[in-house]
Design a protein that fits this description.
Blueprint lengths: L1 H25 L12 E4 L2 E5 L16 E4 L2 E5 L9 E3 L6 E4 L4 E4 L5 E4 L5 E2 L5 E2 L6 E2 L8 E6 L4 E6 L6 E5 L2 E3 L7 E4 L2 E3 L8 E3 L8 E4 L1 E3 L5 H33 L3
Antiparallel strand pairs: 1-4, 2-3, 5-20, 6-19, 7-8, 7-11, 9-10, 12-13, 13-14, 15-18, 16-17
Organism: Devosia neptuniae
Subcellular location: Bacterial flagellum basal body
Pfam families: Flg_bb_rod (PF00460), Flg_bbr_C (PF06429), LlgE_F_G_D1 (PF22692)
């Protein structure tokens, strides 16, 4: 009985949906996290009678056909790249992006990673790094004698050195944009890499061409809404239960058939 297999695809799809929702909820406090959503497609159909088939020698046709579907599958889990709330941290090396851009970091294998997490630190050499110790691109070094480090909305990094009365410019932060942000590959550690689907990174200065401006002493929070996630979780649970009921109903029908004499 096909109903058993069709309902099983529904249960499998909703199980994957719950996994996506649980990951969103688990990352509610992850800096710069972008929520995912599960998207589904129906499977192939068995054409028993095709719409438009002739039903007589006079040329009359069926106005609608008879098709039996095969169920559903999870086709993708794209990220929702909407802006998250920005919270004050009072740390001078915390920076939030208000716009579409991504910070760039140099990963250990030499590739460039992209992140919305602006919780920066200083390495032992004074290099500006992310929370995993990866250097920010372009490289910016803050001397040990630097005080009152400031990062402007345009990404200019300045600090007072020694007893100087005027700040010294230490470097310029840059941001990357993508035509299709949802096509980025997730690496974990708040990092993404570009793919053929995302298109190449378009590197710009902050405040230009939609990259967004920077906000020092703030961090962007995850764009996860707890109420929405719980509502989606309840809907997924109910869909799972209904598919389970279909399997139970199909089993009852098969049992009744097997008891015929």
């Amino acid at each position: 009985m096909k109903a058993l297999y069709i309902a099983s695809t529904g249960m499998s799809a909703q199980e994957r949906n719950v996994e996506v929702i649980s990951n969103n909820i688990a990352n509610m406090r992850t800096t710069g996290y972008k929520r995912q959503r599960a998207e589904f497609q129906d499977l192939l159909y068995q054409q028993i009678t095709r719409a438009g088939s002739q039903t007589s020698d006079q040329g009359t046709m069926l106005p609608a056909g008879l098709e039996i579907g095969s169920g559903v599958r999870t086709v993708s889990t794209p990220r929702v790249m909407s802006q998250g709330n920005v919270n004050m941290t009072e740390r001078e090396l915390d920076v939030a992006i208000r716009g579409e851009g991504f910070f760039m970091v140099t990963m250990p294998d030499g590739r460039t990673g992209y992140t919305r997490d602006g919780s920066f630190e200083r390495s032992a050499e004074g290099t500006l790094v992310n929370s995993s110790g990866y250097a920010i691109e372009p490289n910016i070094t803050i001397p040990g004698t630097a005080t009152s480090v400031s990062i402007s909305a345009d990404g200019v990094v300045e600090a007072y050195l020694n007893n100087d009365t005027n700040p010294t410019e230490l470097g310029q932060l840059q941001l990357a944009r993508f035509v299709n942000k949802s096509g980025l590959e997730s690496l974990g550690d708040n990092l993404f890499t570009e793919t053929a689907a995302s298109g190449p990174a378009q590197v710009e200065l902050p405040n230009r061409d939609g990259t967004g401006n920077l906000l020092q002493n703030y961090l962007e929070m995850a764009n996860v809404n707890s109420v929405t996630e719980i509502a989606d979780l309840i809907a997924a649970q109910r869909a799972y239960e209904m598919n389970a009921r279909i399997i139970s109903g199909a089993d009852t029908m098969m049992q009744a058939t097997s008891q015929l004499r």
